[in-house]
Amino acid sequence: AQSVAQPEDQVKVAEGNPLTVKCTYSVSGNPYLFWYVQYPNRGLQFLLKYITGDNLVKGSYGFEAEFNKSQTSFHLKKPSALVSDSALYFCAVLNTDKLIFGTGTRLQVFP
Amino acid sequence: ETGVTQSPTHLIKTRGQQVTLRCSSQSGHNTVSWYQQALGQGPQFIFQYYREEENGRGNFPPRFSGLQFPNYSSELNVNALELDDSALYLCASSAGLAGIYNEQFFGPGTRLTVL
To answer: What is the pLDDT of residue A90?
Structure first.
């Protein structure tokens, strides 16, 4: 069965510092991986996806993610965090035509 | 271009009651998926509707049912509400069956509280 795991419930980082939100996956076949962000009282917003090709995927709002097949990971990164990046982040894997989400990581960026 | 909208925003019901949640898909999208997000959890797939037919269902009991209308808007119905049904219900639309090239766009959700 397809699944993703987000090992950290919460990540705290100072504004201006690099941030990493971790995700590992378990899939049979080719992994199609996604990152979404959820702000309070808002729906999920798409950040980026990995289908194939370059292991470094660039997405919205300056975020990027690195696909690592040997470590079965798809970590979300940003070189310089902003306070406005504080939100709930979900990693997901596509299973046929539905998304399987992780439990989420709350990112807190403090000034 | 209008995004995905959901109504109502919030809803409070009591155990045993029935509820209907509504979703209007983004313009040009013919597929709607419903997800349940319990507090502190990631969204879980309920089912997907494609061209007015159910196309795929997650691990939810039959008291969760849905409809899709000719204009591709959708309803989620839940009968015999239980306390554990309290959650944020998310609707997502896509241009075709959700997949690697048909990205899902999510609405803001309906917060259902069952007392």
So the answer is: 97
Question: What b/e sequence results for A68-102 when a residue is b if at least 16 CB atoms lie within 10 Å of its CB, and e otherwise?
Answer: eeeeebbbbebeebeeebbbbbbbbbbbebbbbbb
**A60 pLDDT above the threshold of 80:** yes
Residue B16's contacts (CB-CB under 8 Å, 6 or more residues apart) are B80, B81
Beta bridge pairs of residue B23: B6, B74
List, as ranges, residues 36-55 from A with C-beta within 8 Å of B: 36, 41-46, 49, 51
Tell me the per-residue pLDDT of A26-39, one tens digit each, with 9 for 90 and over: 998 889 999 999 99
Give CA–CA dist A8/B58, Å, rounded.
26
What does the pLDDT average to over B5-10? 96
